[in-house]
Predict the structure.
Amino acid sequence: MECPFDTKPRWERRKDARPQELLAAAIDLFVERGFAATRLEDVARRAGVSKGTLYLYFENKEELFKAVVRNSIVPVIGEAESSVAEFEGHSADLMHKVMMAWWERIGANKVSGIVKLVTAEADNFPELAKFYQDEVINRGTRMISSMLERGIARGEFRPVNITQMTQVLIAPMLMLVTWKHSIGPCERCDLEPQAFLSTFLDMALHGLLPRATAAASAAA
C-alpha cells in the first residue's frame, strides 16, 4: 500500500516545483513588461530563488520564453487538434467548441499577453518570432483550416477560399487579446469576449452554411 503522503524532504519537493514556479514568474513579468524589459534576475526574485538557480533550468531568457510558450500555449493547441480529430458532430458545432475553448484556456488568462508580446516585439526579436510562428501560429492556422476542410468535404460548409477564411476566423481572436491587454482595462463600454465570439461565429457560420441550408435557417 502506497503512503498517501509525499515522503520527500521539503527541500526536495521545493526543488521539483521550481521549474513551474519560474515559468509562472516569467509569464507575469513578460506580460507586465514585455520581453526586452524583463530581466532574468527579476524572474528569479519573483520566483523566490537566486539567479544562479534559474540558470540550472534555463540557459538564457530566450530559452525561458520558449519554455513558457511550450508549457502554457502549445499543449492547448495539441488538445484542440485532438478534439478536431475525434469530433463526430456537425462542423459548425466543432468550430464553436474549439473557438470558445480557446478563449477559456488562453484568451481569458494571463498567458494571452504572450500573443500581444510577440506581435509588439517581433521585429526586434525575429528568432523568437520565428519560433512562435512555427510552434503556435502555423499549428493553430492548420487546425482552423482543417475544420473548414472537414465542413466542406461533409457538405456542411459551402466551398470557400480556405486560406482567406482561416485568417478571417483568426482575426477576432487576435483583436480580443489585443483589446484585453491594451485599452480594455480603460474602456468604458463593456465588451463581453464570449458574447462577442458567439456573435461573430453566428455571422461566420451562417455565411459558411450551404446556401439552401442558410436560406432555410433564415426562414425559420
In short: Confidence is low (pLDDT under 50) at residues 5-13.
